[in-house]
Design a protein that fits this description.
CATH architecture: 3-Layer(aba) Sandwich
Number of strands: 11
Radius of gyration: 14 Å
Number of domains: 1
Distance between the termini: 32 Å
Strand content: 25-35%
Order of helices and strands: EEEEEHEHEHEEEEH
Helix content: 10-25%
Number of helices: 4
Shape: globular
CATH superfamily: Glutaredoxin
CATH topology: Glutaredoxin
Strand order of the largest sheet: 7-6-5-10-11
């Protein structure tokens, strides 16, 4: 499924591949690559989770977005935060080291765009992942979602963090 003009990049419309997820929906299964290149699947996640996606950690807004969630993680006990991009796992590991990011788990969708397509975030024209934040409760249901309309803009951190704090 393709959704034309679902997001923009510097005002130019882009197509997202995959079905749009809805609040209350159980998250789709996925397999990503960890920084060690080993497969990481949805079955390895549990409890309250934040899935934040970025086009590339090597861009300023993406860098700040993941750093913000890494910083907030210390006050979010029992919450797992996953930062997902199409960057190679080696680049993600380098970024984590440079950013001293130890409270988020970076995962890569570089191989098949499995996560991006299953979650309706695969940018067709760029083969990147749209910027988003999903909060998932302990039963695996989506309780908050934001797919940022303009890819170069930040998500609404305050709304996402409020949703995390109220999720169970």
């Amino acid at each position: 499924m393709e959704r034309s003009a679902a997001v923009t990049f510097q005002g130019n419309p882009l197509t997202l591949i995959g079905k749009e997820l809805e609040l209350g929906q159980v998250i789709p299964e996925f397999t990503l690559a960890g920084n060690d290149l080993k497969p990481f699947s949805s079955s390895q996640t549990k409890g309250v989770r934040v899935f934040t996606t970025v086009p590339s950690l090597d861009t300023p807004v993406c860098d700040l977005q993941v750093k913000r969630f890494n910083k907030e993680a210390s006050s979010l006990k029992g919450v797992s935060i996953y930062a997902i991009s199409a960057d190679l796992p080696f680049a993600q590991a380098r970024w984590c080291g440079n950013a001293d990011a130890k409270s988020v788990t970076t995962l890569s969708d570089y191989k098949e765009m499995n996560f991006a397509t299953a979650w309706g975030l695969h940018i067709k024209e760029l083969r990147l992942i749209a910027r988003s934040v999903f909060v998932v409760d302990s039963s695996g249901k989506i309780v908050y979602k934001e797919v940022v309309k303009e890819v170069t803009q930040h998500p609404d951190y305050e709304k996402a963090l409020a949703a995390v704090k109220s999720a169970k």
